[in-house]
Structures are given as C-alpha cells and as structure tokens.
Automatic annotation (TrEMBL):
Belongs to the gluconeogenesis factor family. It comes from Dellaglioa carnosa. NCBIfam families: CofD_related. This is Putative gluconeogenesis factor. PANTHER family: GLUCONEOGENESIS FACTOR-RELATED (PTHR30135:SF3), UNCHARACTERIZED PROTEIN YVCK-RELATED (PTHR30135). Its main location: cytoplasm. Keywords: Cytoplasm. It holds the Pfam family CofD. It is found in: Cytoplasm.
C-alpha cells in the first residue's frame, strides 16, 4: 500500500514459472493485482490436454491461481499435485489442469471458468486469461523460415525475428483479440509489470494481440520489464539485457518499456544443475548504453535467488523495487532518458 493509503493497481503480464514468484510477493504488499496469462502454451500436460480437449492450455493459469489463493496449504498441494509418470493414463497431469479443463467445458469458455475458480480458491486479485480461446504462437526466423507452435519454435534453436498469434479455429484470417477485462485493467493500472518469463513464448504472445498492444501504448501507467537472469535455449541465446528490451519495443513499434530491472549478482560457477534446468544457458550480459538508447530507466541490483541448484528471481527484492516505483507520480517516470 502506498503512503497515501491507496491500494496500487498492478497488472502483471506473462506466463511460465517466473510469474507466480512475483505474484506471491506482491500479494504480501496488499497490492490490487491483476495477472494476465498467456493462452498460447502447447507443451507438457497443458499441451496434451489441449490436444484432446478444446480449451486453452491451463498450466500457467493453474500456477497463478495457486500463487494468489488464500486457501490452506493442503488444498493447494492437492490442486498442484502432478501424477507420477508410472500412472499411465494420468501420467504427468496436474490435478489443477484437469479441473480447469473441466470447468472450461462446463462454462463454455475458459475466462468464465477461471473467474468462478478464483472465487472457489479465494484468490486475492484477478486472474485473466488474455483471450477466451486457445491461441497458436507463430514465428518468423532470421533465415526467413516460419514455424507454428511454442514447442516447435524453441526446439528449432534458430534466431527468432518476430512472433505473432493466430486463432486455433479454422478462420485464421480473423485476428484474435484479448477479452475486454484485460484492456480495462491495463488502461486503469498504476503499474504494468512484464515478466519475468520467456521473452518470445510467455510475454510477447500477450503483447502482440492487437488490442493489448494498443492499450499498452495508451496507458498512463509505468511499464516495468523484469529482465531474465539467464539466456534461454531456443529463444534468447546470446541476448544482452538491451536485446530483450529491443525485441519488446520492436514488436509494438515504439519504446513503450519505461523501466528495466536488471540483476547484477553473479551465479556461482558450477552451482546450477544444467540437466534439471536445461533451458537456461548463461547469465544475460549487460548493455547499459543500449538500454539508455531505448529511453529506459535502469534499476540494477542483486535480484538473485539460488534454490535447489536453480537460478531464480528473489520475489521480495523485486517487489520492493516495484512498490518503490508505484508510489511515485507517473509524470516523473514516463518521460526520461537517464538511468
């Protein structure tokens, strides 16, 4: 809560495992949270369910619901439980994914089902799937070739030039749109947070939807990007922090990212389990001049958390910075070229 007692409206956009880390810490700060979650995931349990049931992929939605839920821990453990690989029929499926898929069928749409499930799970905030239909992620690579599908795009391990989303329905000419609630949340926000998460497969699939990009261009809120700590295989290999922001701005056709949070702490050599976290390659290199050229305010600090031989953002440290920013007048933050 800010000094004047206002409960800040913070919209967090993304997907993947990084998003819940930030949401849990934000919840402790009594922020009015809206989580906007991608519906273009086609991997893991989410992808299998999507292949057999005509619903959006539920995995990221499940993790966000759990992060914002006030249910007792035992209920959340059941919701998050993933069946063992030896269980043949249910192998690898999370119970929450099955519940979301069932509710989406019952309610004839994932958006309504997630709102109902949010009430059932006593969610503190709002969880909005960015669209009410499953979307397909498409990519053009630097060599001029194209691929569709998140898993296929990252498996190609090529340099990605741009991404966009199309409807899963047969009428691909009709461009998908975000649900009105997402646009309203962006326009009414005090702060918009992008990430942390996979640049091309978790963050951009939300932003490249036409009415989302338009709302981000029009919002008076500060747009903060939490830059990834590690480069990611098949997505951001050899990327600097400035490269991440350059790609975001290029997709929306303007410098819309106002502030970038950059981790400067070093991961101890040999710490990370590279088999378990095989998507992570090396630490993102810094290019502060490149960030300033894009009119970004740069906040560099130790945002690193080491856990279970993996590299993560420290949610509490990140949120301390976010809350410090949200308490300042927007006009102090929107127009600047300094770090």
């Amino acid at each position: 809560m800010t000094k004047n007692g206002h409960r800040p409206k913070i919209v967090v956009i993304g997907g993947g495992t990084g998003l819940p880390v930030i949401l849990k810490s934000l919840r402790e700060k009594n922020a009015d949270i809206t989580a906007v979650v991608t519906v273009a995931d086609d991997g893991g349990s989410s992808g299998i369910i999507r292949d057999y049931v005509n619903v959006v992929p539920p995995g990221d939605i499940r993790n966000v619901l759990a992060a914002l839920s006030e249910l007792p821990e035992i209920y959340l453990d059941i919701f998050q439980y993933r069946f063992d690989t030896s269980d043949r029929f249910f192998a690898g499926h999370a119970i929450g994914n099955l519940i979301i898929a069932a509710l989406a069928e019952m309610k004839k749409g994932v958006f309504a089902s997630v709102q109902e499930l949010s009430e059932m799970m006593r969610v503190d905030g709002h969880v909005f799937p960015v669209a009410d239909e499953p979307l397909v992620l498409n990519a053009e690579f630097s060599d001029g070739t194209f691929l569709a599908g998140e898993a296929e795009i990252t498996a190609a391990r090529k340099s990605i030039k741009r991404v966009w989303v199309t409807s899963n329905e047969k009428n691909e000419a009709e461009m998908p749109a975000a649900v009105p609630e997402v646009v309203e949340a962006i326009l009414g926000a005090d702060q918009i947070v992008l990430g942390p998460g996979s640049l091309f497969t978790s963050i951009l699939p939300n932003l490249v939807i036409g009415n989302v990009g338009k709302a981000l261009a029009e919002t008076k809120a500060e747009v903060v990007y939490i830059c990834n700590i590690m480069t990611q295989k098949g997505e951001t290999e050899h990327f600097t922090d400035a490269d991440h922001v350059r790609i975001l701005n290029a997709h929306l056709g303007q410098c819309f990212v106002n502030t970038v949070l950059v981790n400067t702490a070093q991961v101890p050599e040999g710490y990370m389990d590279k088999e378990k976290y095989d998507e992570n390659l090396v630490q993102v290199e810094h290019d502060f001049n490149g960030l300033r050229e894009q009119h970004c305010r740069v906040i560099s600090s130790n945002f690193l958390k080491l856990k279970n031989q993996g590299v993560f953002h420290d949610g509490n440290k990140v949120v301390e910075e976010l809350m410090g920013l949200v308490g300042r007048p927007n006009h102090e933050l929107r127009h600047r070229e300094h770090s």
